[in-house]
Amino acid sequence: MTQKYPPRKPCIRDEVVLELQHVYGNGDQDISFQVHAGEVLGLGGLVGAGRTEIAQVIFGSRPKESGKIIFMGKEINPRSPRAAIDYGIALLPEDRKRHGALLTNSIKNNISMPIYERISKATVINSKVEHATAHKYREEIQIKCPSIYQLVKNLSGGNQQKVILGKWLAANSKLIIFDEPTRGIDVGAKFEIYKLINDLVEAGVAVLMISSEMEELIGMSDRIIVLAENKIMGELQKDEFNADTIMSYASGVIPDNKKEAV
């Protein structure tokens, strides 16, 4: 495969899905940014810079100490992942085997997990809806498996990632956070994940993508914010993307070509 990143038509909308205003928490300090509908906002930085930490605050798995999180025009304070999911926020974590999927459960159970409350009546799950939902997303995102009853642990890394994405699509998420979306995935499966991300933003979903792969960060993002030592060091528009500039910010140094703007 010669093309690493599938083409994406411009699809960023004026609607701000997520806005952080001077957020402190989980070690991060004074974090402010926006993510628009139809946008991939990349979060760059070295390991330990605070990228995953801010994702955990947004997803409610770590507490916010101060500042504001505004989602779909309303201030929210998710105190748990369940609360964040109910708002419409999703997270595909860096360690999908430990935190992203229930490996010893079926594809069907994993995809249905966030929506059991919605498809149940008096604690009885509507099995027809559950089956139809799992089958729908198996087909839509092309999970390669013999059936929706296949255990997730028996799938390839790329297909495991698709199952996790499938459950968030079933939950009708408006913001999806990808933390190292293609780590441990082969080249062909990476391209498929990139195409799915493109499909999401073209449908108006907002994507926040954390990646330690410079080429992936540049190839998939519409804008890039770079963190160093738990603070935002700089922001780059598409026409400013440059590996040296990103690495300079990630090292805590303002590049020479940006000093005048500070």
Write structural notes for this entry.
This protein is of the alpha/beta class and 262 residues long. The chain has a domain at 16-100 and 172-259: P-loop containing nucleotide triphosphate hydrolases (Rossmann fold), CATH 3.40.50.300. It is 32% helix and 24% strand. A 6-stranded mixed β-sheet has the order 6-9-10-3-11-12, sandwiched between helices. Strand 4 and strand 5 form a beta hairpin. It is globular, with a radius of gyration of 18 Å. The termini are far apart.
Spell out the key features of this protein.
262 residues, Rossmann fold, 4-stranded antiparallel beta sheet, 9 helices
Secondary structure blueprint with pairings:
Blueprint: E1 16-25, E2 28-36, E3 40-44, H1 51-58, E4 66-71, E5 74-76, H2 81-87, E6 89-92, H3 96-100, H4 107-112, E7 120-121, E8 124-125, H5 127-140, H6 157-170, E9 175-179, H7 187-202, E10 206-210, H8 214-220, E11 223-228, E12 231-237, H9 243-250
Parallel strand pairs: 3-10, 3-11, 6-9, 9-10
Antiparallel strand pairs: 1-2, 1-4, 4-5, 7-8, 11-12
Helix pairs in contact: 5-6, 6-7
Quick overview:
With 262 residues, this protein is α/β, with parallel strands linked by helices.
Query: For this structure, what is the CATH class of the domain at 16-100 and 172-259?
Result: Alpha Beta
Number of helices: 9
CATH names the topology of the domain at 16-100 and 172-259 as Rossmann fold
CATH architecture of the domain at 16-100 and 172-259: 3-Layer(aba) Sandwich
* Average pLDDT, all residues: 91
Helix content: 25-40%
State the separation between the terminal residues, measured CA to CA. 42 Å
Q: Sheet bearing the most strands, described?
A: 6 strands, mixed
Question: Which homologous superfamily in CATH is the superfamily of the domain at 16-100 and 172-259?
Answer: P-loop containing nucleotide triphosphate hydrolases
Rg on CA atoms, Å: 18 Å
Widest beta sheet: strand line-up: 6-9-10-3-11-12
Count every beta strand, where a strand is a DSSP E run of 2 or more residues. Answer: 12
Poorly predicted ranges: none
Shape: globular
β-sheet strand percentage: 15-25%
Strand/helix succession: EEEHEEHEHHEEHHEHEHEEH
